[in-house]
Amino acid sequence: SAVISQKPSRDICQRGTSLTIQCQVDSQVTMMFWYRQQPGQSLTLIATANQGSEATYESGFVIDKFPISRPNLTFSTLTVSNMSPEDSSIYLCSVGGTGTGNTIYFGEGSWLTVV
Amino acid sequence: GENVEQHPSTLSVQEGDSAVIKCTYSDSASNYFPWYKQELGKGPQLIIDIRSNVGEKKDQRIAVTLNKTAKHFSLHITETQPEDSAVYFCAAAANNLFFGTGTRLTVIP
After folding, report:
1. Which residue of A has its CA nearest to B94?
2. Are residues A106 and B46, on separate chains, in Cβ contact within 8 Å?
């Protein structure tokens, strides 16, 4: 399995500000993903974080709003830009592929509340 | 893209009874089907997964079955316990993982 650490675990943010979430894995993994889980809802894939290149975004998510970095095989960041109350969600990092036996694991999430 | 449907949305069972959650998927290229348990305030925890070359997999009280022809897969929990109470999500993946809408399981002592 993989041990995934996310920071911050929880935050309250002011409308119009941006927040960067960090995801650190204890081993090298080929695949890292970012998901959003709105209150009481399922998980929605935001993007695949690609090492050394631009992230691949799913429909409805854009780089200007959710810039992602992945400088190496164990670390990624997700920024939620110009936040509004609608961005209040849990943001989850997940990993898979080589390094996890092609099993996909999740971190504990970053719980953001925008006021 | 992939579309995963999950039923029921809520499920209540008496302690010791079995619980079954069913999912269907749309993309025939999907070949990986994990199940996650999410407790309040926590991230999803992988409880069991199955790949397309296997029809059934069991781990103690938990089993998963897969019917690739019909594009459906199911989670079976036997001898349920109160600590099994949580939200369960199915998912399907070819490249990326797409989730069902979740089932809130309540085990009544």
Report:
1. A102
2. yes
Is the N-terminal amide bond of A71 cis, ω within 30° of 0?
Answer: no
Using pLDDT thresholds of 50, 70 and 90, give the confidence band for residue B65: very high
Render pLDDT for A50-76 as a digit per residue (tens, 0 to 9): 988 899 999 999 999 999 999 999 999
Predicted local distance difference test score (pLDDT) of residue A99: 64
Cβ–Cβ gap A105/B36 under 8 Å: no
Taking the C-alpha atoms of residue A3 and residue B47, their distance in angstroms, rounded to an integer, is 15
Joined together, the tokens standing for residue A26 give: 């204890």
Tokens of A70: 């992945």
A98: pLDDT strictly greater than 70: no
One-letter-per-residue 3-state SS of chain B: CCCEEEECCEEEEECCCCEEEEEEECCCCCCEEEEEEECCCCCCEEEEEEECCCCEEEECCEEEEEECCCCEEEEEECCCCHHHCEEEEEEEECCCEEECCCEEEEEEC
Residues 38-97 of B with CB under 8 A from A: 42-46, 49, 89, 91, 93, 96-97
What does DSSP say about strands B97-99 and B103-108: parallel, antiparallel, or unpaired?
Answer: unpaired
Cα–Cα distance measured from residue A93 to residue B44, given in angstroms and rounded to the nearest whole number: 11
